[in-house]
Amino acid sequence: VKKWQAPILKTTDTQAEQFLSSLPFQLTGAQHRVITEIVTDCQSNHPMLRLVQGDVGSGKTIVAAYAALLALSSHFQVAIMAPTELLAEQHKHNFKQWFKGNKTNIAYLTGQLKGKARKQTLTDIENGTANIIIGTHALFQDSVIFHQLGLIIIDEQHRFGVHQRLALREKGQTTSSRPHQLVMTATPIPRTLAM
After folding, report:
1. Using one digit for the tens of pLDDT, what is the confidence trace for 147-158?
2. Predicted TM-score (pTM) above 0.85
3. Are 95 and 65 in contact (CB under 8 A)?
């Protein structure tokens, strides 16, 4: 069986401290524990496939943001896919706040984005100018070409079909390498657990 490789994603202690100290809140013990596990996974050269399950408001998104920091620090792009524009908009707002001090360029891609603005966003994703790409189903359309996708974060992943999740993963796939994946859900449903 061919073992898939994945990019090694890691950050420096200084970058991690700057990021955490810039947050308007302290992380909980559980969040620290999950982050430690994600850090271990992302430093391996095999693709992470991790599920973070927690109630609404339990802080899954900040854990995902820390995973994004690992990818950004390693010069890889991060794709964050949400099932609705409202949820994608929330992620855009949070990530803009949390990554204010970092050199990040957040692109926002949904079906509503049209014309010149859409063309510019697609160009920024393809040439790597955009390093955090947040959106809906629009992220796995044929017209979207990532420069160097290292991490995929899928929110409420049970709302997407298997083929949709695979289509996004394939966007970051090379002949032997796949991006790391982090899926978040507030709904502990059997299909999610089976994954």
Report:
1. 999 999 999 877
2. yes
3. yes
